[in-house]
Specification:
This protein is mostly helical and 118 residues long. It has one domain. The chain contains 5 helices and no strands. The longest helix is centred in the middle third of the chain and has 24 residues. The two termini are 15 Å apart.
Length: 118
């Protein structure tokens, strides 16, 4: 189970770090989503910071499990808000947000399942 936890956590951290980088770079794809949802572009930097913090928290969580759990929970809340924003805007292109949400849930579940009484 430990290897599964490490792989899922590393994957989730890499995905969120990449998403943060896209926000920091103000990528056209991120701007297009913001436009569809009616979100001001000035929010790209704060959203990128949240994603980057989540990615770092997941990686730190491999050594301090509680931090990893907190990071995963934070990312789950972030992507629940993202899915809600898509739904409120009647945007049918919600697959990316749902996928990120499921990966964050998987990171939390594997973290909890791998708890060892060390």
């Amino acid at each position: 189970m430990h290897l599964t936890y490490l792989v899922v956590t590393a994957f989730a951290a890499l995905m969120n770090a990449y998403a943060a980088a896209l926000n920091f770079a103000r990528a056209e794809s991120v701007q297009a989503v913001a436009n569809r949802l009616g979100i001001a572009h000035r929010w790209m930097l704060p959203f990128g910071v949240l994603l980057a913090a989540g990615a770092v928290g997941l990686l730190v969580g491999t050594a301090a499990r509680e931090i990893g759990m907190a990071a995963a929970i934070g990312l789950i809340m972030y992507f629940m808000c993202a899915v809600t924003a898509h739904m409120r805007a009647h945007d049918t292109q919600v697959g990316g947000a749902l996928f990120f949400l499921l990966v964050a849930i998987a990171a939390l579940v594997t973290n909890v399942a791998d708890r060892r009484p060390w």
